[in-house]
Amino acid sequence: MLGFLPAALRGIIASLILTLNTLIFCWPLFIGALLKAALPLQGAHRVIRHWVHVFASTWIAVNSGWMRMVQKTEWDVQGLDKVNLNDSYLVSSNHQTWVDILVLQHLLNRRAPFLKFFLKKELIWVPIMGLCWWALEFPFMQRFSKQYLAKHPEKRGQDMATTRKACERYKTNPVSVFNFLEGTRLTAAKHAQQNSPFTYLLKPKAGGIAFVLDAMGEQLACLLNVTIHYPNGTPSFWDLLCGRLQRVVVRFEQVEIPSQFIGKNYDQDDAYKLDFQQWVNQLWEAKDAQLGRLHQEFPPTTPG
């Protein structure tokens, strides 16, 4: 434990460990990606994918180590005991900060199949990490506006094609496909700009998970619906590095995916699209109410 050190010094130490950890474990991922390209055999791909995930899980485990080292965080977690490594999941969560990602990786690492995040296409250019995400077969998405699609109709359905291609690779191994339904981190400015009807959430975007259900719905055991609450306020990534993440409350809920939503075309079936959006909105209303209860049950604590 480094709790006796000044917060800034803890942040520097944790940053150095994170950087070194990434520089070490990126190489097995790069080598695995090159081997998959050189060996066009599905059996070889399954073996390589397994070992790539082993190295990536070890990277996450080291991150969990420095998170414990900089400060003892109090975790209040429910529902995680029902998650296992043999089932495939569609995972979604509310999104407040980049810390959400490390929280989810910390809790689900080696308890659920490796998390595959849907990422914006531009993120592939992030130094080192972009190549790591590519090597781990994260799907990179490019969303087009209605105005752009009106001028370039040939681009319509490109996201669906990208999703299908990514999900085809997931059929040989259990996987956890992750998507932040809000599409971006919650801030007061974004909440006001959207005129969001929810107290603690932005409006959900149903298209992303609808594409996943279209591509691989029959493979998924359920929707793993995650709710994250930080009683002492939303932490920044620097807060996490400095050991200022005192308490985290997380609730996991396994939600059955209605059979009528599997294998449907979200872009071309208006009736299905409306029904699916209503289902997602109901999930979001329940999550907003749950966050309200968590705010009352877990008020801010005084730093110890």
Describe what you observe in this structure.
With 304 residues, the chain is α/β, with parallel strands linked by helices. The protein has a single domain (73-297), classed as 3-Layer(aba) Sandwich (Glycerol-3-phosphate (1)-acyltransferase). 48% of the residues lie in helices and 13% in strands. It contains ten helices and eight strands. A six-stranded mixed β-sheet has the order 1-8-7-2-6-3, with helices on both faces. Strands 4-5 form a two-stranded parallel ribbon. Strand 4, helix 4 and strand 5 form a beta-alpha-beta unit. Helix 1 (7-38) crosses helix 4 (129-135) and helix 6 packs across helix 8 (207-216). The protein is globular, with a radius of gyration of 20 Å. The mean pLDDT is 88.
Count of separate structural domains: 1
Task: Specify the number of helices.
Answer: 10
Order of strands side by side in the largest beta sheet? 1-8-7-2-6-3
Instruction: Note the beta-strand portion.
Output: 5-15%
Query: Which structural class should the secondary elements be placed in?
Result: alpha/beta
What is the helix/strand order? Answer: HHEEHEEHEHHEHHEHEH
Q: Sketch the major β-sheet.
A: 6 strands, mixed
Shape: globular
CATH level 1 class label: Alpha Beta
Structural features:
304 residues; alpha/beta; Glycerol-3-phosphate (1)-acyltransferase; 8 strands; 13% strand; globular
Strand and helix map with partners:
Layout: H1 7-38, H2 42-70, E1 74-78, E2 88-93, H3 99-108, E3 115-117, E4 119-120, H4 129-135, E5 140-141, H5 146-151, H6 158-170, E6 176-178, H7 188-194, H8 207-216, E7 220-229, H9 237-241, E8 247-255, H10 270-297
Parallel strand pairs: 1-8, 2-6, 2-7, 3-6, 4-5
Antiparallel strand pairs: 7-8
Helix pairs in contact: 1-2, 1-4, 6-8
